[in-house]
Amino acid sequence: MTSLTPPPQPRQAFDPETLIACPACDALHADMAVPAGARARCHRCGTLLLAPREGALAQIVTLAATALVLMMSAVFFPFLELSAGGKVQRSSLLDAVMAFSSGKLLPLTFAVAALIIVLPLVRFATLLYVLGPLALGARPARHAVRAFRIAEATRPWAMAEVFIVGVVVALIKISGLAKLSLGPAFWAFVTLVLVTVLKDNFMCRLTIWKTLEERRKS
Amino acid sequence: MQTDDLENAGRTQEVLTARRAGLTGCRNCGRVHDCAAQVCARCGSRIASRDPHSLQRVWAWLAAGIIVYIPANIYPMLVTTTFGKTSQNSIVGGVIELFHHGAYVVALIVFVASVVIPIGKFLAIAYLAVSVRSAAVIRGHGRQKLYEVVEFIGRWSMIDVFVVAILSALVQLDFAATVNPGIAAASFALSVAFTMLSAHSFDPRLIWDAYEADDI
């Protein structure tokens, strides 16, 4: 682990292009090349600044594409199956979303749909759009900067993994009431969560922004 | 360099920040600009050396979050009808019922997600917002950690809303049992969203500014 150093002291006129400011505490650092696999932290607050990895772009693109496919199957295949007293009830992910669609709670339907389906989809799609060309070594696509901003903004709101924990809690709540079986969509969704966590671990925000800027110039 | 940093950790020390150097750093991508710049050249987000309205937004969203958290605890989260009998469950009621069923771990998860985390977040955000103004008991590193935890953990409070959604979708066995969502689900979801926005409005650079405020 390396720690980026502050810029050289007597304060001559700084060229902003050669500096990085820590997003968390504003401390200035000299922007230097960080070798792949190393992690550069802020010298004051310890926030992780740069953590480039060999082949990270290709990995993220692959994982985002996988996540996109998994999400499609998670939405359309049966998610959970409940049987009690000879009656069988099958629910898809869409049914869970539509649970609030009656009466006063309709707005919550849109919110849940956004949190567990729409925003994760938006995030995967924008990541593919931005990082796809970069991984192939090409120039960034048009509006790539705006697309990556959207991808970053949706990050806290894409709650697929929170939903999975909710499913587990719900299953235990009704396990006494009826017999339950898990559909293919459930496993697709679980895989999706694992893929998402993996993908977010590979991602280094500052490195991607820098790469985008360099490729735009060239 | 490293040891020097460790010795001085948390103490008032000469750290060159973008603001001190007359520059503005982007909170999104780390790019440094002249202080005149308003939009980041690298990522296109709006930049400001310090956002003077940051704390106001924090308090506004926090107040909204606390207000809607009250009905979330009073009104029912779940309305269960079993063989014609209707019972209503609030957030805490649901936890107690799980506990009686012997599902201690799940009861604990729900209790932590819907009671401990929201209230802890209210307190943590309020403390962070107050402490940038007055002398802080916890050092900069501690508060930075607190902020990171608050930012990370906020979304996990949504668990209970999803539980209600899944139960309502799944348990529609006309005669035997039906589960319907209660109005508290909506206000709880709003409370989580508002506190997430509150935490997001907080500018962590304010935590560190206190250590260099004297000579600017």
From TrEMBL, chain A:
UniProt entry tagged with the keyword Ribosomal protein: no
Listed InterPro entries: PqiA-like
The keyword Transmembrane helix is assigned to this record: yes
Keywords: Membrane, Transmembrane, Transmembrane helix
Ranges annotated as spanning the membrane: 56-80, 108-136, 157-178, 184-208
Superkingdom field: Bacteria
UniProt name for this protein: Paraquat-inducible protein A
Protein's organism: Albidovulum marisflavi
Taxonomic lineage: Bacteria, Pseudomonadati, Pseudomonadota, Alphaproteobacteria, Rhodobacterales
